[in-house]
Each structure stands twice: as C-alpha cells, then as structure tokens.
Automatic annotation (TrEMBL):
NCBIfam families: T7SS_Rv3446c (TIGR03931). The chain crosses the membrane at residues 274-294. It comes from Antrihabitans stalagmiti. InterPro entries: T7SS_Rv3446c. Keywords: Membrane, Transmembrane, Transmembrane helix. This is Type VII secretion-associated protein. The keyword Transmembrane applies.
Amino acid sequence: MTAHVALHLTDSRVWVRYGREEWDGPVAMDDAAQVQMAPAWFVDSGYCATPDRAVPIAESLGRILRDAIGEVGCRPPAELVVATYPTNWGTARLNVLATAVRSFANEAEFVPIAVAAARAAAARAKRAQNANTVVLEIGAMTTVASCVGQVSEHGRVVACELITDIGLAACSVRRDELVEVVDTVIGSRRVDALVIVGDLVATDIDALTDALSSRTPVEFLAARDLVRHVGRPTVSERQVARPEPVRNIDWVAAAPADRAAASGSPRSARRVRMLAAAALVAVVAVGAGVAFAASREDRHLDTADPAATPTTDTDVGELTLGRIRVTIPDGWRIQSSEPQQPGQLPRLEIVPIAGPERRITVTQYVIRSDLDLEGIANVLRRKVDESPNEANYEGIEADVVFAGRHGVTFRENPDGRSQVRWHVMVDRDTQVGVGCQGLFGEWDALSSDCERVVSSVVISP
C-alpha cells in the first residue's frame, strides 16, 4: 500500500509524516509572499497584507504545507494527504485549508484534532472504540475542549468549547479554569478518558494531570505521536457506516457544518460555546445510497445520521444551492440541503411527500478543471476497486446521455432492497451527481422524476 502524507495542523505549527520520515516546524515564514506570521492566524479574513499585495491565505498556507511535505521526501502532488485541523474550526476555515491542500494533493481527508486524538489514545490504551473521550487541544494562544463519542468509524464531537486566552504559556497557571471548562464539556456524560494534546513541557503535563485526574484518567498525547497515528494506513481506510457520494479527484471542497458560537458563556465571557455537532472525517469513498428503513410502516428513508437536518414541508419549484440550480418535481419535498461531510458543498436530498420509498440525491464538488468524463470514470473505477464494498457497484460508463445530459453513469446496490442509479455531470471545475434511489423493480415509476431533476440542473461558473 502506498504511504500517505499525514499533516497535524495547529494554530501555529505543523507536524508531517510520510513513510518513516517526520518533520515539524512553524506554520509561518512564507518567503515567496513575504508573509512573516502564521497564515492560520489570518484564516478568518481570507487575506494577509504584504508590502506588495494582499495574499490569499489559502495560497500562502498551501506553499508552506507544500514545503513541509517536501521536508519528508514527498514530491507534489501527493497521492493522499490526511490532515488534522482544530476541532472548533467551521466551514469557512476548513474551506481555506481544503483549498491549500488541494494545491499539492490529488486526494485529501480531514479529521478534527479531537477525533484523531481520541482514536490514537484509544488504540494505544486498547480501549473500547465506543467510549466517550474528552480532548484538550492546547495551542500557542488558545485551548479547545471537546467531548468525542463513537470513536470508531467517523467519530462524533458532541460538545466543544473554545477558550480564547489560555494557551501553552498559561495552561498550568490557569489550570483551575481549564477544570471548569472540562466539567462543562463533560456535563452528565460518563467519560472514559481525558486526553491532552499539545507541545507541553513535563511540568505543565504534571500540573494539568494533578488538576484533572480526579474527574477521569488523564493521558498525554504528544503531537508527534498523533501524527504517527494519523500516518498509519488504518486511519485512511474507507471505513464508513454506509456508502458515500462519488467524490471528485481532489476529494476536498468544504467542511463540516459550522459550529456556531453562542454569545456569552454563563461562566466566562472569554469562552465561545460551540454548538454540539457531528465532526465527521472526510473519507474517500463512492456512492450515496442509504439503506431503506426496516419498517415498511415508516414511509421515510432512514438517514442513519443522528445530526441530520430536520425535514421541511412541501417544497416545489426551483432551488439554488451552492453552485447549482435545480427544479424539485411535483409531489416531492426537501429532506435536507446541508453538507454532510467535511470537504463538501451543500448536498440536496428530496423524497416523495407521500407514497413509495424513494430518494433523489444531488451532490456537487469542486474538481480539477482538466478532468473530463473519462477521467471521472477512471477515478471512480479505481475507487470502487479499492472499496471494501466493491460488489455494491456496477455498470460504470463514461459519456452516457440521460435526460439530454452527457455524464458518467453507474448503479449502486446499498442494502439488498434498493438500487441507486447515478448520473454524474461535469462543467469546468464543478462535478454534479444525481442519484435516484428506489426499490428493486420500481425504476420505471421513478425514472420520469429522475429525468426531470437531471435535465433541470444548471451549473453556475
């Protein structure tokens, strides 16, 4: 198996591993753009000023990370990059990182630091993968406290708080405040371990361990150990609860849903309380079929997503979403229209208002502009060959005309009861997939609505 590049990114430093080679250094000093401070510090503004021009943060960060992977002997473009990111980051920030990584990688996966740390600590301690784990990410200037549940598969962040004025220099002196934050994150949950991640010295580790150990066992995970775990082949295995949508060659685009900050914490105005959100790993996979609900009494489809967007009432007509415009057929309603994974633009799911178990899914991704339909088909074939669910996919064909639109088509059989027929279209750097899912033998009844959706798609530049 070809080694992938592991990147562990914090607010001021990056650790890299490729094969047996490791390197770490500051996320700063972009000589090409004369940026002398960490681009990550400017991530919210999108640009940093230099004497000559305003430099896009993604451009500067991309150069720095490209140089970093060169330090471990990886010549761009890297085949696969698995990157961690601060758990409190939302869509806008992760978009910047995704754009930066896309400049030197063919494929990418993104993992919240808390999820990666919980997995690494559980593997090291041979702890059950369904345990609740609290993770403290202590950075140069800030600390993020999170509770991670369901460490296996994607991992799920169920609580997250950001402390904006406690970092490495003050973490041991102000440890009582960190204890207070940990208590808030734990709430009424049973927690099996607390993992501290950061570039801490021994005295700080001892002080924090003493302060926190009365609540739950405390473990320290050095950054180099975290990036080593992220660099293991098992981290990037395609372990998903269900087949996921066909991805573009870059496999990166947007981010998890923003963890919106609630203004003011009852305990401290410095804290930014983050809404509980599912923090899912952006994995490379194909397909988006979802197993139908086991009970025929429930006419809705089982989304298998505990944080799914609530369904809406009747929605008929034209809808603009991300880069696309699409028409909702009569008799259908919107079930969700949010990104489901890190690195994705909004994804639309519609279901019948009443009647049979059916679903139409519309996905959209940013891809390399030099990819044509044959290139997309080749990538898809390769991903199917690598997938543990290879037998679920069949009939991949390039340049098939359906509903008057040229595209890549294939069929997915996710659950033994239903089939998804996919039509994937490409316009410049945008890939749009329409998947029409119905019970076996019911394609004739679904095909006309599927054609209406496919023919209505308008891709904006």
